[in-house]
Recover the amino acids of this structure.
């Protein structure tokens, strides 16, 4: 916390609180999953509303809690409207992809249109979803608004993305900051706007921390590809001395390459988490509202622990789920529960076991990730956030802008998450 | 409280304490709500009336979680909120506004809406899926043959790669002068009887699985395992006729078009991170394709009989080959009935659980699905020669080297 902190203000900061309980949230998620199964997945819109209502209503600022006023019907309507756009789009994409086949030139041309158009749709979806969520977020009886043009935002995002790619990722903070400027700068609470005064230059040095391991990992992968460039197991002839020498040399160097790659992935993940936390704190510190400023003390250790503990919890879950499903499949098939038959159990279960275990695992991991990652992350982010400066909400009046009447269809289709 | 006459609570009426936001300014102020006969009256601590909410228009905000103070709003001011944490307030209010609890998750109307949407949604998507699935043959029929040929060649190349490892020299296609000549003779006879503009490129690959398949454009692959199990050339001719019908009726092309269409429908549907719909639509798609494939198999069976009749080859015997494949791969266990308590039942047959890779050609069981009966009915009264001489048949069976003697190994 050096350049990203703001000077201490003499007025006491107004902290945000989160007092939701993981177990209560788990109950909501579990019932949601059950109802989604029973309704062929349609319930997911109402499921999302149930989750958000819980989370929003446990976020407190001052004496007052947030309120989520969206409804499943609105989300569903938004989804149906998005389909009108998406079905023809994907029909065209799949049709073209198929026509192009393996032709390298055709593939290049296809990707030149496909990748930007998909990115455009994804960013458009994200912006529109944000607009809907803000319009359905109420605090002290006042709702949020997101102004600005979603299409212009999406077009800009595609442009910044191209710039990031061309700069080999070095311009990524520029993209992040400029998009944040459009997102935060167009966010209103009632009739008063938020302000954002971040600069990409401030984040550039921090961005080098994940950028370097990413580049180094890519280099190691390149090295490995180069080492095995013309290796073909089909042609391998152990009697050929030159080939045997070469394969021994590769065998000696492979552990080093594999170790470096593993190290690279690990470092990249850690450095990336560190950067995102720092970026978040920077964005918070440069976000203002009516003379007040946000400040976040989110720690990278806390964020990492959320992911690590989730991964640790997965191990027993996967074991238990696998064994239970395996036993259930055998039981359903009337397989003789007999030690002598054990060697054949795998074969006997193999037609139904993969699908059964996949389905069960998706459900189990889905519930766990909502409870152990999503919900805890919400708590971590909210409870480390505070508003500094003299409280100045009394001048805020309800915005007269019309709120959208349906929401998030595109974002739902692209699974853009909740925040 | 004494200034305004109507703020004096009459006997039996109680003033509560709450917090009120008017939905116009971001200010929450302490208020003293009172349950009047005609509605809820909200006044500030000085007794100034801020709002009067009728009981009918009152709504309980569903966002409030268990343990939170009940939060109320009114249809006349959608963003206004009144929170009253006094215990007993909600009970007192419910006496006057009994319909209040029927909001949000507790509202049966909300659940009816979910159910209605579910049905509507299933109807829309079912309809769209049905439309796409059924227009696929039309679209496939419009595809130029040159494009089909390109697809077919690409598919064959891919399959050869999968089966043959990665080197080009690992091509598993069997070549043998005498065998090629025999295969060519049989293909030519069938082609002569076929009225379609397709050229057929038939190859035998050295894989020990009794199967055959066709890809668009006339490319047909027969696995050596099928040759090994075939007893007579007309059995093989029947399978070839069946695969040729898949080509000329564009079954594979139709499947491809259908898969692309359904994919476009399903991708936006399932990518919403919804686990349940993801799985369900995957299963649905498989089932849909399978139902069409059963239809296509039956159609190809009959077309094969037709083609063999026209070519003067004995028709319909290939169902015997299919049954033989099926018997080999789904060997019934001796303990078919579990009630009997014979000695034989003590040792269950592991084979029963080892239904290894049931070949695609058995998309449905010939006997149980009535495929063999339909073929027999179509072939009744027709006869012909086996299609190849005994010498040619021996050559063809040896196209991948020496033939396996399994064919005579009847069950």
């Amino acid at each position: 916390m050096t350049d990203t902190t703001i000077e201490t203000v003499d007025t006491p900061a107004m902290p945000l609180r989160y007092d939701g309980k993981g177990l209560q949230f788990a109950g909501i998620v579990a019932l949601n999953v059950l109802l989604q199964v029973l309704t062929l997945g349609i319930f997911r819109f109402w499921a999302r509303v149930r989750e958000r209502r819980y989370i929003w209503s446990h976020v407190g600022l001052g004496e007052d809690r947030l309120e989520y006023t969206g409804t499943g019907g609105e989300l569903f309507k938004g989804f149906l409207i998005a389909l009108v756009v998406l079905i023809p789009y994907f029909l065209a994409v799949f049709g073209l992809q198929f026509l192009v086949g393996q032709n390298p030139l055709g593939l290049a041309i296809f990707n030149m249109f496909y990748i930007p158009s998909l990115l455009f749709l994804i960013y458009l979806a994200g912006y529109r979803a944000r607009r809907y969520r803000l319009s359905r977020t109420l605090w002290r009886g006042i709702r949020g608004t997101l102004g600005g043009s979603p299409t212009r935002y999406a077009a800009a995002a595609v442009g910044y993305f191209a710039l990031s790619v061309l700069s080999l990722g070095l311009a990524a903070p520029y993209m992040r900051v400029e998009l944040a400027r459009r997102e935060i700068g167009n966010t209103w609470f009632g009739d008063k706007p938020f302000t954002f005064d971040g600069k990409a230059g401030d984040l550039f040095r921090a961005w080098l921390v994940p950028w370097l391991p990413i580049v180094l990992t890519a280099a190691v992968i390149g090295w490995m590809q180069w080492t095995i460039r013309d290796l073909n197991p089909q042609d391998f002839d152990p009697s050929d001395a030159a080939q045997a020498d070469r394969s021994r040399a590769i065998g000696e160097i492979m552990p080093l390459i594999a170790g470096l790659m593993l190290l690279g992935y690990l470092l990249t993940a850690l450095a990336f988490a560190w950067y995102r936390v720092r970026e978040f704190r920077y964005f918070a510190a440069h976000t203002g509202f009516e003379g007040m400023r946000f400040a976040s003390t989110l720690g990278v250790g806390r964020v990492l622990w959320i992911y690590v503990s989730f991964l640790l919890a997965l191990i027993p879950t996967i074991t238990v789920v696998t064994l239970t499903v395996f036993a259930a499949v055998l039981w359903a098939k009337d397989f003789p529960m007999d030690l002598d038959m054990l060697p054949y159990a795998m074969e006997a279960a193999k037609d139904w076991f993969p699908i059964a275990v996949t389905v069960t695992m998706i459900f189990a991991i889905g519930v766990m990730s909502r409870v152990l990652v999503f919900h805890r992350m919400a708590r971590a982010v909210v409870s480390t956030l505070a508003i500094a400066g003299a409280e100045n909400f009394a001048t805020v009046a309800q915005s007269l802008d019309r709120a959208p009447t349906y929401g998030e269809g595109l974002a739902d289709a692209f699974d853009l998450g909740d925040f | 409280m004494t200034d305004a006459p109507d703020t004096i609570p009459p006997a039996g009426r109680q003033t509560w304490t709450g917090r009120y936001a008017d939905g116009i300014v971001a200010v929450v102020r302490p208020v003293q709500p009172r349950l009047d006969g005609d509605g809820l009256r909200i006044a500030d601590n000085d007794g100034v009336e801020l709002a009067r909410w009728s009981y009918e228009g009152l709504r309980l905000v569903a966002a409030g979680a268990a343990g939170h103070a009940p939060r109320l709003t009114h249809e006349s001011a959608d963003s206004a909120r009144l929170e009253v944490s006094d215990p007993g307030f909600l009970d007192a209010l419910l006496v006057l506004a009994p319909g209040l609890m029927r909001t949000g998750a507790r509202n049966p109307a909300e659940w009816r809406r979910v159910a209605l949407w579910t049905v509507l949604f299933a109807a829309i998507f079912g309809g769209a899926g049905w439309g796409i699935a059924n227009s696929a043959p039309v679209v496939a029929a419009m595809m130029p043959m040159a494009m089909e040929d390109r697809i077919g060649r690409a598919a064959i190349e891919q399959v050869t790669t999968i089966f043959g490892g990665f080197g080009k020299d690992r091509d598993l296609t069997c070549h043998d002068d005498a065998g090629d000549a025999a295969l060519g003779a049989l293909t030519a006879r069938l082609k002569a009887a076929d009225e379609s503009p397709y050229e057929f490129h038939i190859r035998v690959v050295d894989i020990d699985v009794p199967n055959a398949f066709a890809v668009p454009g006339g490319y047909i692959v027969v696995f050596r395992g099928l040759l090994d199990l075939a007893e007579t050339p007309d059995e093989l001719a029947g399978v070839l006729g069946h695969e040729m019908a898949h080509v000329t009726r564009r079954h594979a092309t139709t499947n491809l078009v259908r898969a692309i269409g359904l994919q476009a429908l399903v991708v936006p549907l399932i990518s919403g991170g919804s686990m349940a719909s993801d799985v369900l639509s995957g299963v649905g798609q498989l089932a849909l394709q399978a139902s069409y494939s059963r239809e296509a198999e039956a159609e190809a069976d009959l077309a094969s009989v037709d083609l063999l009749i026209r070519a003067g080859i004995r028709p319909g015997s290939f169902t015997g080959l299919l049954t033989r494949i099926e018997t080999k791969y789904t060997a019934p266990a001796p303990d078919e009935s579990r009630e009997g308590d014979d000695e034989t039942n003590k040792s269950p047959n592991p084979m029963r659980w080892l239904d290894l890779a049931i070949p695609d050609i058995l998309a449905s069981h010939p006997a149980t699905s009535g495929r063999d009966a339909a073929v027999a009915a179509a072939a009744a009264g027709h006869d012909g020669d086996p299609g190849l001489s005994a010498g040619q048949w021996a050559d063809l069976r040896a196209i991948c080297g020496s033939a396996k003697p399994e064919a005579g190994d009847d069950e």
User: Anything to note?
Assistant: The longest strand of chain A covers residues 14-18. Chain A touches chain B through 78 residues (CB under 8 Å). The two ends of chain A are 24 Å apart (CA to CA). Residues 220-281 of chain A form one domain.
